[in-house]
Design brief:
The protein has 283 residues and is mainly β. It contains 3 helices and 25 strands. The longest helix has 7 residues. It is globular and about 55 Å long.
Length: 283
């Protein structure tokens, strides 16, 4: 299937057949879209040439009269297994997260998801990797789409991607690997930032793994103002292996999440070890 910006992107995705290959032509697709057909292989013309963009945000009032919520703010949502995406950008350009709240670009609640040579761009909560924590599955059972309430487990992989945001911009409970990716922190008026916010259950044996990744920032992000990760739930799990960091990363590296004792339970690892990091990692 060949799709152009003039086409109805959602209609085309809904009409695709399981396992179909889809080519997205160069251009800007101003759309909020869901992938729900298994096995689709989607390829664009390049991250600067094929762009899916929308501007929803958590505090926006939905047509149902309730706030949109973080988990309905996505530009693109994946609710199917065995999806692969290459050479596109997915953007949430709402901006002003300090006022509007979370602004997801991509949400994934599907197993065996693969993304390569793509760009994900937003501010707070750019990339959600399902499933949700168990307590939120229960809390939102009468609110969110059932596809967002699936319990998983879900595995996802990202290769040579650019992912940019400000606060908790990689978050969730997915068992996700990032290989050779760039994680770019963008300026936030709140003058702080956190890259990963994992919420894995203790039963999960792999969390977020960043391998051979580079952690960079835009020109307005201050030195030492960004933490690599903080645990969104008690047993959140992150590993950083052979990564490179710019001076925007706080020397202590990790945050326990203010007002909690998650430094006792979080599973954070960094190899090789970096002097000056908090003492509760690598245990």
């Amino acid at each position: 299937m060949f799709i152009e910006p003039k086409d109805d992107l959602q209609k085309c995705l809904d009409e695709a057949h399981e396992g179909e290959q889809i080519e997205l032509a160069e251009g800007i697709y101003r759309a909020k879209s869901v992938i729900s057909v298994k096995g689709l292989k989607i390829k664009g013309a390049g991250i600067d040439r094929t762009i899916i963009v929308n501007d929803d945000y958590s505090n926006k009032i939905h047509s149902d009269g309730r706030i949109l919520n973080t988990f309905r703010s996505w530009t693109l949502a994946v609710f199917a297994d065995d999806i692969s995406i290459e050479q596109i950008s997915v953007v949430n350009d709402a901006g002003s997260p300090e006022i509007k709240g979370q602004e997801a670009a991509l949400s994934v609640c599907g197993n065996n998801f693969n993304m390569k040579n793509c760009r994900l761009s937003s501010t707070q909560d750019t990339l959600f990797l399902g499933p949700l924590p168990a307590d939120l599955i229960e809390r939102y059972k009468d609110f969110l789409d059932p596809s967002l309430l699936a319990e998983g487990p879900f595995c996802q992989s990202f290769t040579s991607c650019l992912i940019e945001g400000s606060i908790d911009f990689v978050f969730g409970c997915g068992e996700a690997s990032f290989e050779g990716c760039e994680l770019r922190s963008v300026y936030d008026k709140r003058n702080c930032g956190f890259i990963a916010a994992p919420a894995h259950a203790l039963s999960q044996k792999s969390g977020f793994t960043f391998r051979n990744c580079s952690f960079t920032h835009d020109e307005n992000v201050g030195a030492g103002s960004i933490f690599l990760a903080r645990p969104w739930r008690d047993h959140g799990m992150c590993s950083f292996i052979n990564c490179s960091y710019s001076d925007h990363i706080a020397p202590e590296g990790f945050d326990k999440w203010a007002g909690t004792d998650r430094d006792r339970t979080a599973r954070f690892r960094e190899y090789p070890a970096v002097p000056g990091r908090v003492p509760w990692i690598n245990k």
